[in-house]
Amino acid sequence: MTEARHATEARRPAGTLERHGHIGTQREQGPKKPGALSDGQGPAGPDGHEATVLLRESRASVDPELRSAIASLPASMRRIALYHFGWQHADGTPAGGNAGKAIRPALVLTSAAALGGPGARTAAARAAAAVELVHNFTLLHDDVMDRDTTRRHRPTAWTVFGDADAILAGDALQALALRLLAADPHPASPAAAARLADCVMELCEGQHADTAMERRAPGEVTLDETLAMAEAKTGALLGCACALGALYAGAAAEDVEALDAFGREAGLAFQLIDDVIGIWGDPRRTGKPAGADLAARKKSLPVVAALTSGTPAAAELAELYAAPYEEGEEDLERTALAVERAGGRDWAQVQAADRMARAVQELARAVRDPEAAGGLLALAEFVTRRSA
């Protein structure tokens, strides 16, 4: 993308999305800025409620599979996994913590239901659990690599158990995911296992690209390569989740690929909004320190968009990013303001709306019945309209 086109897009008003099916056909504004939602948990109104119900039902279906699988781990790995999922305290006593929103398993189950009905949804429970295990494997490793100290409003596993044990626990979760699929008698399980393994390799490549970018000077990173990295790190697993649901529904190959593309586009929209929250989010809702990405001089999507905008604020931002973080709110406020003045925040929100529009097009290719597609659309909109 050229700087001129980028600067023009950064000034465009937020995009619009058209929704179809039982939730009605209407025009809606693109992703709102953090804090614009009514409850801080997801989209306001009936569609946010639908997504919340789907997430709650998915958690109820998947948690027994997860708990059973984690119980089979060696005691040393099991202790860390149970802590990471919020089900135990560090001392091993029970905890009623937060295991996450279950977005990825919900995509598996809802995709299966959209193409194969309730029976396919029930049959895909193990596949959904496998995807959630892989997701949490990446979280354990990411926290170590990024040196993040807080996740889900509690200390990260590596800060409690050490780097080595957190990494090993993540490795165990990945192996556990593939074992779940290998032991699943469903005829789709071999294809699902192969697809999930390919996805893990793509995730690793995306993480490698991300860490390599952090070692490069601010002016050396392009927007296109940052988008490609984000698709690999985030979009790949959401696409895989949708594809696995389609496989368990016995869908045709072209429908599996269309749902993969739907998940990837929605995942990129998710990452764009997540990066916005990483700069401007409320730590009381995110569970992470305010401005952590800026303090780490992370080249997130809004930051790279700002750096490549060709504006005076871009030059100021490059200068700030070239210097080590000076602890205190003043550094973070200056940096966040430079990103915003250079168009990074607006660009990310416009891009998120555009990616959601593409996701809707891919979904329509795979699920021709608007009624059946409503759940997937509600989930996609939920993750791109959150404020935390």
TrEMBL record:
Gene3D superfamilies from the entry? Farnesyl Diphosphate Synthase
Q: Which keywords, in A-to-Z order, does the entry hold?
A: Magnesium, Metal-binding, Transferase
Give the Gene Ontology MF terms in alphabetical order: metal ion binding; prenyltransferase activity
Chain coiled-coil ranges = none
Give the domain of life: Bacteria
Q: Does the keyword Metal-binding apply?
A: yes
The Swiss-Prot or TrEMBL record describes its family as follows:
Belongs to the FPP/GGPP synthase family.
Record's protein name: Polyprenyl synthetase
